[in-house]
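Researcher: Here's a chain I'd like modeled. Treat it as a single chain, no partners, no ligands.
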Amino acid sequence: MKDVLLYMVQNISQTPDSVSIEERINDNQHDFYITCDKDDMGRIIGKKGKIIKALRRVLSIMAVRDGKRVNIVMVDNESGQEAQEDSLENEE
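Model: Modeled as a single isolated chain. Structure tokens:
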């Protein structure tokens, strides 16, 4: 899932080399922390959050097969704070 997310985010970003994703796994909870250039953060979130919601939907579809939960967090590169967080629960 991390590779798919990285591929999608790098293709949205204008500076794909600045994109990094950290994955933390706790049981069946997968947390993805996206760090990118400040100018690309708005592109990845999208107008009214449409892009980030679409990314979450794609990952949730992938996670349903394994009965896992997915959480995507945008991390502000300068302050290190979480800019946006949302969790999707997937049940069979």
